[in-house]
């Protein structure tokens, strides 16, 4: 069974994160399925790529249960974190290099590293009841998924820092105001909103849209993002091995149980 479902709709390829019983929390198998689906979608020459999530959440970031299951030793935990965070960062870079416009339908909460999948999208539709939140300081993790590599360029350095220092929850209206999303509405209407955007793309030349995206996300810019993502992973791996972080994961899991 794949953790990512593919749907062809109105000329676009939709990829659905499909682990709804765990709020689409990220594990290496899901990331592997996502990267595989992205490679297959790129070969279809779609008008656009759309990411969304099954169930009530887009994704709640790295599955803490997965980290705790591999916490028998620091070596095992670091190896698991390297696989998960490294895979997520590769998926983000896959999205930045995708040959067609990338959109996201944020159907529910998006937290932790999964926010990077949203930050890699060109246009985002967010449900009125959805929110974005880091949670790193609540657990002791280093930020990953582009919270320091991509977010400051989107909303400004000071704002990006304040959100992470204070673990600020960004609601749908604020996400639109600060430029993280292009539109919002009831969760049931996100598909129609995205369909409208895809239809707008069809009014112009696909080759122009492709050239525009390739000019913006050129090799130089993507390499700069890669370096910052590598820096995020290095610091994530440093902090994941600390005893305080292990206790932070256990405490956070108890609070959410």
UniProtKB/TrEMBL annotation:
Report the protein name in the record.
Enoyl-CoA hydratase/isomerase family protein
């Amino acid at each position: 069974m794949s953790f990512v479902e593919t749907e062809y709709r109105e000329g676009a390829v939709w990829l659905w994160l499909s682990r709804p019983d765990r709020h689409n929390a990220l594990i290496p198998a899901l990331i592997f399925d996502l990267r595989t689906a992205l490679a297959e979608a790129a070969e279809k020459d779609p008008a656009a790529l759309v990411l969304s999530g099954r169930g009530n959440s887009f994704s709640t970031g790295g599955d803490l249960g997965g980290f705790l299951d591999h916490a028998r030793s620091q070596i095992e935990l670091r190896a698991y974190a390297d696989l998960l965070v490294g895979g997520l960062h590769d998926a983000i870079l896959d999205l930045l290099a995708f040959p067609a416009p990338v959109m996201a339908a944020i159907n529910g909460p998006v937290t932790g590293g999964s926010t990077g999948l949203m930050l890699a999208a060109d246009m985002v539709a967010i449900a009125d009841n959805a929110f974005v939140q880091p949670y790193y300081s609540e657990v002791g993790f280093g930020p990953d998924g582009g919270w320091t590599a991509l977010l400051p360029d989107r909303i400004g350095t000071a704002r990006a820092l304040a959100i992470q220092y204070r673990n600020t929850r960004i609601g749908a209206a604020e996400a639109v105001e600060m430029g993280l999303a292009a539109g919002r509405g009831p969760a049931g209407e996100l598909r129609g909103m995205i369909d409208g955007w895809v239809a707008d793309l069809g009014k112009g030349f696909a080759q122009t849209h492709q050239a525009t995206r390739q000019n913006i996300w050129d090799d130089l810019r993507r390499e700069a993002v890669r370096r910052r993502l590598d820096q995020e992973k290095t610091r994530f791996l440093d902090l994941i091995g600390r005893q305080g972080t292990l206790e932070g994961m256990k405490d956070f899991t108890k609070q959410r149980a």
